[in-house]
Amino acid sequence: MISPENTPHKTPASLRWRIVLWMTAVVFLTLSSVVLITRSVLLSEATATANAAVEQEIEEFRRFSAEGTDPTSARAFESSHRLIEVYLSRQIPDENEAILGIFPGELMQVDFSQLNGAHPPPLEHSEGLIQEIIGSTASSGVFEDPQRGTTHWGKVSFSSEGSATAGVFVVAYFAQSQKEQVDSHIRTLVFIGIGGLAASFLIAWIIAGQIIAPIRKLRAVASEINDSDLTRRVPVEGGDEIAQLASTFNAMLDRIEAAYRQQRQFVDDAGHELRTPITVVRGQLELMDSATPEEQARSIELATTELDRMARMVNDLLTLAVADSGEFIHPSPTDVTDLTIDIEDKARSISDRISLVDAAEGLVNLDEQRITEAILELYGNALRYSEHTVDLGSDFRGVGPERVFRIWVRDTGPGIEAEEQEALFNRFSRGTRPAGAKTSRHSGAGLGLSIVQAIAQAHGGTAFVNSTPGLGSIFGLEIPAPANTANNTATNAPTED
């Protein structure tokens, strides 16, 4: 049994060759169709010409036999022989045409020796063509003569007035020369087509090379990208689909590079944040042997505190990992009035410095537990940065499909500088204390607000901050809550005074 490793793999055909072969195949089919159609048209024209010549001669003989007179007597022809003799004497057949009269055992035809130009040899009574005409009951037909080729013929029986002898007037048109001309034209056309096919192959090769050149550049850039260099980009030229592909590829590289940098920054920050509690715990354990019972108790307390902080950090990282996986929330229709009141009750169990100032009314599709988790995180931050009561509220903004549900907390702490507000929701980001602030920043890992942002984004919304140094801050979440009716009145969110 052949293992998958040993199974031979077919080398895929080059894209350039595939384009060339397909273009050449299309040209080949087109040229073949042109040759076949042209041949059919030319053969049809040759056949129509032969039939028309036969019909014309037959019609002329009919008029002559009905209206003609013997030039010697100026009266009607006395015999069929005389009729055909006079008629044939006045005819100059084409080089591909034979005109004759057939009587029992006798054949009368134009004497070609007296005519200029090329003419077919005289017909013999014993020839297959004559026997075919005599034996056929049809008035016209086509005979494939081994010597003369394809021959179109027509006949009409006649007899002169008062003559008992009947004859057959015959017109034979030899179309073989015209068919040979058709074949010659077709051969010329085929040679031209072969030249055109070769030219199309060369042109297709050049065009295919130009088409796949950007793809080759794309492949070259992709092969040079590694985990240490994500700065290479594909040159974008023009505005066609290849240029759009290059632009899309460059945009993908931008996202990958940004994600890679964030990942590296995340790993560096996580390593830095975890290194400190590990160092503290290790230092306290090293002092245990020579420490007094009081110092040992103090060391155990410090080590436990650092381990708890490290455990919280790990749990926060796991929460963010779950948020990135896309299975973070389980929304359901929720009464936001009850939600706001429940959050106040849970916040009051942490600290009684909470005041409910506003509660929205209505149903919103959201994950009640995750929203509660986010607001309690914001409430905990507000308690650390303010010594006064923290306000809690919720409201709606906008109407119809633009309506959003907002739930927020407001403190009267030192506030946050404007240049720091945008980075507050980044992972491992902690703001600095404004000058003159009486409270110190908590020495956390800087993951709490990033979890709040992840919860908001999982709901299709965002976390926001509105802060003025010296006056306080408002932190909250905006969750899309589109309404089907236009009578939803919008309330104003709290603003800083």
Describe this structure as you would to a colleague:
The protein is α+β, with helices and mostly antiparallel strands and 497 residues long. The chain folds into three domains: 16-183, Beta-Lactamase, CATH 3.30.450; 241-324, Orthogonal Bundle (Helix Hairpins), CATH 1.10.287.130; 328-432 and 443-480, 2-Layer Sandwich (Heat Shock Protein 90). The protein has helices at residues 15-67, 80-89, 128-135, 176-224, 241-286, 293-325, 336-350, 368-385, 418-421, 448-458; strands at residues 97-103, 106-109, 140-145, 149-158, 167-174, 332-335, 354-358, 363-366, 390-397, 404-411, 462-468, 472-480. Strands 2-1-5-4-3 form a five-stranded antiparallel beta sheet, sandwiched between helices. Strands 7-9-10-12-11 form a five-stranded mixed beta sheet, with helices on one face. α1 runs antiparallel to α4 (176-224), α4 packs parallel to α5 and α5 packs antiparallel against α6. It is rod-shaped and about 160 Å long. The relative contact order is 0.07. Residues 1-11, 433-443 and 485-493 have low confidence and may be disordered.
Summarize the structure.
With 497 residues, the chain is an alpha+beta fold.
